């Protein structure tokens, strides 16, 4: 049986998967000294726009609430988040970053930026735009635990949002990403699920 897939598309796909593995390895190495995982950073990033209940946070970062709960338990034990019952609905938990969590997130952002390849010949904006097209065109996974995540920009307090929305309410593909030169880096976390890197 012959494949209709364009050889350029096949080779590009292989390069994307290889790049994702390399980026994830660099991120893991950068985050390990901080005692953080990619899953933890994704959850902390999801809270960077303000407190959310667990279900809304899970929806914002596109992961199952049960899977997220395990990550949040570890973050809470480390003092990086708090979970409190909401007065209006005692079944709902409000999840919020603490000062410790915010400091951990800032350290993680810097560690990730430091791990980006420092090559002036990389066309970050072109790479970002092409990868964004690829992600939009890729069919949704049947596994709802998979997170198509690109992090918010790594400049705390400077994230721009569309009119009337909070950072946590936007699609992950709308979140800008930047390196230390202001160009887009490889997407943190790739297409791997939160449950794969707890």
From TrEMBL:
Region feature (Disordered): 141-198
**MF terms in GO:** DNA binding; DNA-binding transcription factor activity
Please name the GO terms of the biological process aspect recorded for this protein, alphabetically: response to stress
Q: Where is the HTH marR-type domain?
A: 9-136
Q: Which domain of life is it from?
A: Bacteria
**DNA-binding: present as a keyword of the record?**
yes
Q: List compositional bias (Basic and acidic residues) regions by residue number.
A: 170-179
Give the keywords, sorted.
DNA-binding, Transcription, Transcription regulation
Q: Does the keyword Cell membrane apply?
A: no
The protein here is known as Transcriptional regulator, MarR family
**Natural source organism:** Pseudarthrobacter chlorophenolicus (strain ATCC 700700 / DSM 12829 / CIP 107037 / JCM 12360 / KCTC 9906 / NCIMB 13794 / A6) (Arthrobacter chlorophenolicus)
């Amino acid at each position: 049986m012959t494949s209709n897939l364009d050889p350029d598309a096949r080779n590009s796909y292989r390069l994307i998967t290889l790049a994702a593995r390399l980026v994830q390895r660099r991120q893991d190495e950068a985050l390990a000294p901080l005692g953080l995982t990619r899953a933890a950073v994704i959850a902390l990033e999801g809270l960077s726009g303000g407190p959310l209940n667990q279900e809304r946070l899970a929806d914002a970062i596109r992961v199952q609430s049960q899977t997220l709960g395990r990550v949040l338990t570890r973050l809470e034990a480390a003092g990086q988040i708090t979970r409190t019952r909401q007065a209006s609905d005692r079944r709902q938990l409000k999840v919020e970053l603490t000062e410790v969590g915010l400091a951990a997130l800032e350290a993680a952002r810097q560690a990730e930026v430091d791990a980006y390849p420092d090559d002036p010949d990389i066309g970050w904006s072109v790479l970002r735009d092409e990868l964004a097209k690829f992600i939009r065109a890729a069919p949704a996974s049947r596994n709802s635990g998979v997170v198509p995540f690109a992090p918010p920009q790594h400049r705390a307090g400077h994230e721009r949002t569309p009119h009337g929305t909070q950072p946590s309410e936007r699609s992950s593909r709308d979140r800008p990403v930047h390196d230390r030169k202001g160009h887009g880096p490889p997407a943190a976390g790739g297409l791997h699920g939160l449950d794969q890197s707890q």
